[in-house]
Amino acid sequence: MSNDNIEHFIISPGNDQLIYQELAKTYSAIEPPIWAGLLAQYTRREGYSVEVVDQVAEGLSASQIADRVTLQKPKLITIVAYGHQPSASTQNMTAAYQVCEKIKEAWSDSKILLVGGHVSALPQVTLEESKADWVCQGESVLTIGALLKMEDFKDENQLLRVPGLWFWKDQKVVSTSPAPLISEKELPNVLAGMAWDLLPMHQYRAHNWHCFDDIDHRMPYASIYTSLGCPFKCSFCCIQAPFGNPSIRYWNPAFIIQELDILATRYGVKNLKIADEMFVLHEKHVLTLCDLIVERGYTFNIWAYARVDTVRDHFLEKLQKAGVKWLALGIESASHYVRDGVQKGRFKEEDIYKIVKKIKDAGIYVLGNYIFGLPDDDYDSMQHTLDVAIELNCEWANFYSAMAYPGSKLYPLAKEKGWALPSKWHDFSQHSFEQLPLPTEKLSAGEVLHFRDKAWQVYFENPKYQAWVLQKFGPKVAAHVKEMTQMTLKRKYHAPLLKEPRGHSRGVRD
């Protein structure tokens, strides 16, 4: 292959209009594709030329991407189907398939590898559904490295030595042994940061709520990992799909601060997401990184994930000083019984109130994440969750419907029970037109969806919440929230409830 050509073409697929409907225009974030950036940097350090295409940020159609690929005729094309959070991998598969198909139409001799959380959860299904030559089960780094080293892709004996690879052989699907995970010690050498210079950094935009302190400046924006994986086993989560068993590996804070140096000094980034599934967990890791940020004097606006049962008092002061303005808490359900059913912590309702108050008292905003329609939910338990959300009055709230994401424990359960699942992968999005959540023993899927959408309206139209936003963030943000509540998602599967979600059903705490 000529050295003038790109050897490895990495594509991050996506279609925000399908996934978010009208919310994509203004309210949703446009985030850098972390795994695409990590794999591009890995490729470059291995000595191969590489290009990255971010479909959403660059506003490209599948045909336009195919045209760019065909001009370069790279040795390997990797379509990286991840997302802003683990479940988003599935919703990006529709776009991934479209890109794959258009490339094959334009250049039939192209060699395409599909990777990602969804791909790793359903490798055979992905191979059968797509036009890809290969799919990867696992973390994908060593799989890509082995493919790039191959001299002849037609040599099946060589392919059988590539770890984590699924492909067609004699009209049958075959697979090789899984690739080992990159050890924590080797992370900085193998996944040595992101290829920021290959990404359209001027196109990335923070979530609207992330910038409530300065709503007019949502750009520039970036997101990074400081760890990979999660040690917990929540039944509704699919994060373990590319990693196997529950585990977590950390980059050294001394390495992470070098990435933050690049973002702050070269790209002027202040709005930052720490995308770790569980950032506020390991004391030494968190506090050391906070100290390094404070030493640099950076003025980041950071948001990160935490659990109710992992936030410690002595974390909060340092987090706040380092610029952590928001913590996203996985509260999920107010019912201890419902949380037990999906292995979500052992905390009690009073613990939720205590932790939220402590976080707010430390000067950090709280984003509460809630799920309606978990297996043990009924109308009363969902209303109880909404009651608690209203009482907590967090600065922002995300309301989700329970979904059987591939890679989660709920997916095989749904298959076993014969529950209907979305017919298209992008409809695993919480905001798509044909989104179809799980039913419970007491409620249909349409009733759960109806409750979720109405609960969202109840929360954000609540006079106490709107007054709180006006007091805390000012009239511009208050007007922004009111304008947002005028938007309603179009849904195909809404089913009316006998009782509508309601606000103020219990005494509201100040």
Low-confidence stretches: none
Query: How many distinct helices?
Result: 22
Beta content:
5-15%
> What is the oligomeric state here?
single chain
Question: What Rg, in angstroms, do the CA atoms define?
Answer: 23 Å
Total E-strand runs: 15
Shape: globular
What's the CATH class of the largest domain, please? Alpha Beta
CATH architectural type of the largest domain: Alpha-Beta Horseshoe
Write down the CATH topology of the largest domain: pyruvate-formate lyase- activating enzyme
Strand order in the sheet with the most strands: 2-1-3-4-5-6-7
Polypeptide structure, described:
The chain folds into two domains: 8-175, Rossmann fold (3-Layer(aba) Sandwich); 184-191 and 201-402 and 437-484, tm_1862 like domain (pyruvate-formate lyase- activating enzyme, Alpha-Beta Horseshoe). Helices cover 39% and strands 15% of the residues. It has helices at 16-20, 23-26, 34-45, 55-58, 62-72, 88-91, 93-106, 117-121, 123-129, 141-149, 156-159, 187-190, 253-266, 283-296, 313-321, 336-341, 349-361, 379-392, 410-417, 445-461, 463-473, 475-484, and strands spanning 8-12, 50-54, 76-80, 112-115, 134-136, 165-169, 172-175, 221-224, 227-230, 247-250, 271-274, 301-306, 324-332, 365-372, 396-401. Strands 2-1-3-4-5-6-7 form a seven-stranded mixed sheet, sandwiched between helices. A six-stranded parallel sheet has the order 8-11-12-13-14-15. A two-stranded antiparallel sheet has the order 9-10. Strand 6 (165-169) and strand 7 (172-175) form a beta hairpin. The relative contact order is 0.10. The model has no long low-confidence stretch (mean pLDDT 91).
